[in-house]
């Protein structure tokens, strides 16, 4: 199973993204060299960051396992722009719920953040892509680049101009953010502005009410270490395994609420009604038909009854 480039971190700025790219360039961080298989797609979670190299049209990728396009097996809404990043909100099935349940579901679904650059390598100019995942609920609890000494040490080693954005100049938009309701949430409306603020994804009231606890920490003792170049001296950085952290089970539980806690406010007033939300029912298989029912249906087909 492939490793992600990093786990348990968030990308705040282009400078953060360049640190990850340079860590890959130095051999300190792994690159995702092939398309994710079904098992690897299942383990995508908040805090995963992946760097991959695009396979050139003429097949001149620096790696025989270059990737033509990124696929993670999820459905995404239209892109939104902030700086040079593109953000995509995970699409969920249609459902009816009260405001409380809607906030819970929208806050726990994944957001994909992407950024692409051109980089000069010993084998020529290549196009690298960064894909990061997070949720609105977990964004403020993910570690930053500066909180990981091994990554923070890379920032000063990046040569100026080594990584240039791959987005066309005509596609660039203003860097300011917009006021109003979040673009990725229950109040979002199609056709709105194309820029956004990362504060839209976080719950600031919860952040101030509770101390920030990182979701994931790099275990420096039990992980393999990539070998950096001989002329670079940095603290040892070891990538975490491609597997969901301990807190992922709790996050999945919130994304699929239990039957009693996921009722609308109107239904919860009547304790005699115990109905599952439609979003839950749509994911469950139909129950098998009873044998006696099959016998009755066969009699109708034969014209006996």
What does this structure look like?
InterPro entries: Gti1/Pac2. The protein is α+β, with helices and mostly antiparallel strands. It has 2 domains: 14-255, no CATH class; 259-305, no CATH class. It contains 9 helices and 6 strands, in the order H-H-E-E-E-H-E-E-H-E-H-H-H-H-H. The chain has helices at 14-25, 38-42, 99-108, 149-152, 204-209, 248-255, 265-268, 278-281, 291-302; strands spanning 49-53, 80-82, 85-89, 110-121, 124-135, 163-165. Strands 1, 2, 3, 4, 5 and 6 form a 6-stranded antiparallel sheet that branches. A hairpin with a 2-residue loop joins strand 4 (110-121) and strand 5 (124-135).
Question: Top keywords for this entry?
Answer:
single chain; 305 residues; 21% helix; 13% strand; elongated
Helix and strand run: HHEEEHEEHEHHHHH
Low-pLDDT segments: 172-197, 202-228, 257-264
Q: Tell me the span between the first and last alpha carbons.
A: 59 Å
Q: What would you call the structural class?
A: alpha+beta
Largest sheet properties:
6 strands, antiparallel
| Total beta-strand segments | 6
Q: Tell me roughly what share of residues is in helical segments.
A: 10-25%
The overall pLDDT, averaged over residues, is: 70
Indicate how many domains the architecture comprises: 2
C-alpha-based Rg, rounded: 23 Å
Strand content: 5-15%
Q: Which word captures the global form? A: elongated
Q: What is the number of helices?
A: 9
């Amino acid at each position: 199973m492939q490793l992600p480039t990093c786990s348990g971190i968030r990308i705040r700025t282009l400078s953060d993204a360049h640190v990850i790219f340079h860590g890959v360039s130095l051999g300190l961080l792994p690159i995702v060299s092939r398309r994710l298989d079904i098992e690897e797609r299942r383990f995508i979670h908040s805090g995963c960051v992946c760097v991959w190299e695009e396979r050139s049209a003429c097949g001149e990728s620096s790696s025989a396992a270059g990737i033509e396009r990124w696929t993670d097996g999820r459905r995404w809404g239209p892109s939104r722009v902030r700086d040079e990043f593109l953000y995509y909100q995970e699409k969920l099935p249609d459902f009816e719920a009260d405001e409380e349940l809607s906030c819970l579901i929208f806050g726990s679904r994944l957001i994909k953040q992407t950024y692409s650059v051109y980089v000069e390598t010993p084998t020529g100019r290549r196009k690298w892509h960064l894909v990061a995942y997070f949720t609105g609920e977990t964004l403020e609890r993910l570690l930053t680049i500066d909180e990981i000494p091994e990554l923070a040490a890379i920032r000063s080693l990046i040569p100026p101009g080594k990584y240039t954005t791959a987005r066309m100049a005509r596609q660039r938009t203003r860097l300011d953010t917009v006021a109003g309701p979040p673009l990725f949430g229950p109040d979002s409306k199609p056709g709105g502005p194309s820029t956004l603020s990362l504060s839209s994804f976080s719950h600031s009231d919860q952040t101030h009410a509770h101390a920030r606890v990182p979701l994931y920490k790099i275990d420096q003792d039990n992980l393999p270490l990539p070998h950096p170049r001989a002329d670079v001296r940095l603290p040892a950085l070891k990538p975490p395994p491609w597997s969901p952290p301990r807190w992922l089970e709790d996050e999945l539980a919130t994304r699929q609420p239990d039957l009693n806690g996921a009722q609308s406010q109107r239904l919860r007033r009547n304790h005699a009604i115990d109905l599952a939300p439609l979003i839950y029912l749509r994911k469950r298989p139909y129950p098998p038909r009873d044998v006696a029912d099959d016998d009755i249906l066969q009699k109708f087909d034969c014209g006996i009854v």
